[in-house]
Automatic annotation (TrEMBL):
Gene (UniProt): rplA
Keyword Lipoprotein annotated: no
Annotated protein name in UniProt: Large ribosomal subunit protein uL1
UniProt lineage: Bacteria, Bacillati, Cyanobacteriota, Cyanophyceae, Leptolyngbyales
Signal peptide range in chain numbering: none
Subunit structure: Part of the 50S ribosomal subunit.
Keyword list, A-Z: Repressor, Ribonucleoprotein, Ribosomal protein, RNA-binding, rRNA-binding, Translation regulation, tRNA-binding
């Protein structure tokens, strides 16, 4: 059964042409098409030429968005001894040891990022089924297993994001809020593009970037000219 398109979305779809847009033009249009009754996010959907079922074609990493995410990020830390107090002093919203693991096991999920010290990982392993599907399981690749808690907490609160390619080789990332200035969205999108290029899996074959679309949470997809984004210099965006 065909999904009914709302009048609002139908009107927005008419604004978007079927062609790749220059990056700034695309982001200006994204802002124009964010007409929902709540503050929408700016989303990037990137199809890469990878097959993540092979270990040398997987992409999982972090990016620091220079202009932030526009969201309040709640950080939880699992550590032991003095490290618990260190995490609290560094601005963690939640910090604890075995008792925090028990709370999570009982269903407490009042956080957006979970950071752990390496010595606690064997105990956290039992939370894999709960945290894994939500993308919250701490990992060294994601920068969420570390002994340097103050730096990790500060970075995630300032706009550091962990992301990965899904089973189809598509990366979905919220790279700011639709209410941001298009120039600031461009700076964040450029940082994301450079991060994906920098972390290109060794087994990736052929054309790496296939398509890049951006949209507001409830808005239409807008194709971005990948070559134009790659050619953009951050100094120009700033």
């Amino acid at each position: 059964m065909a999904k009914k398109v709302s009048k609002r979305l139908k009107a927005l779809l008419e604004k978007v042409e079927d062609r790749p847009y220059e990056p700034l033009e695309a982001l200006t249009l994204l802002k124009e098409t964010a007409t929902a009754k709540f503050p929408e996010s700016a989303e990037a959907h990137i199809r890469l030429g990878i097959d993540p079922k092979y270990t040398d074609q997987q992409l999982r990493t972090t990016v620091i968005l220079p202009k932030g995410t526009g969201q309040t990020v709640r950080v939880a830390v699992i550590a032991r001894g003095e490290k618990v107090a260190e995490a609290t002093n560094a601005g963690a919203d939640l910090s604890g040891s075995e008792e925090l693991i028990d709370d999570i096991q009982k269903g407490m999920m009042d956080f957006d990022v979970l950071i752990a010290t390496p010595d606690m990982m064997p105990k956290i392993a039992k939370l894999g089924r709960l945290l894994g599907p939500r993308g919250l399981m701490p990992s060294p690749k994601g920068g969420t297993v570390t002994t340097d808690l103050p730096t990790a907490i500060e970075e995630f609160k300032a706009g550091k994001l962990e992301f990965r390619a899904d089973k189809s080789g598509i990366v979905h990332v919220q790279f700011g809020k639709a209410g941001f200035d298009p120039q600031d969205l461009l700076i964040n999108l450029k940082a994301l593009q450079e991060c994906i290029d920098r972390n290109k899996p060794s087994g990736a074959k052929g054309r790496y970037w296939r398509t890049l679309y951006v949209s507001a949470t409830m808005g239409p997809s807008i194709e971005v000219d990948i070559s134009a984004l790659r050619d953009y210099k951050l100094a120009e965006a700033e």
